[in-house]
Amino acid sequence: MGVLNLVLIGLGVAAIAVGWSRARGPWARYQALKAQDENIARYESWRGGLRDTGTTGASIAMQLLRKQARDGALIVAAGFVVVVLGFLVR
């Protein structure tokens, strides 16, 4: 295993760590907002009220958090590709 292999593997592992740390927080907050939104929908259906289907601040926040989590996941995927590349390069 050469220096290039070790550098690629190190960069890949670093990218995985950075991507994981960037995706973890927004994903957890997104799941919490989604659960809260589902709870509100159940409550309003139980009450028999009509739910406004317009854009809300929570739906915009959920879109933003989903995008941030997706960006972190793409960084993790790129890190995996770099690690595999590090093992394949001779």
Q: Can I get a quick summary?
A:
The protein has helices spanning 3-47, 57-88.
Task: Give a verbal description of the structure.
This protein is mainly α and 90 residues long. The chain has one domain. It contains two helices and no strands.
By secondary-structure content and strand pairing, the structural class works out as mainly alpha
Alpha plus pi helix count: 2
Tell me what portion of residues adopts beta-strand conformation: under 5%
**First-last Cα distance:** 8 Å
Average pLDDT figure? 90
Query: Measured on Cα atoms, how large is the radius of gyration?
Result: 20 Å
Order of helices and strands: HH
- Count of individual beta strands: 0
What is the approximate shape?
A: rod-shaped
What summary fits the major beta sheet? none
For the record, the count of structural domains works out to 1
Q: Segments where pLDDT lies below 50 for 5+ residues?
A: none
Work out the helicity level: over 70%
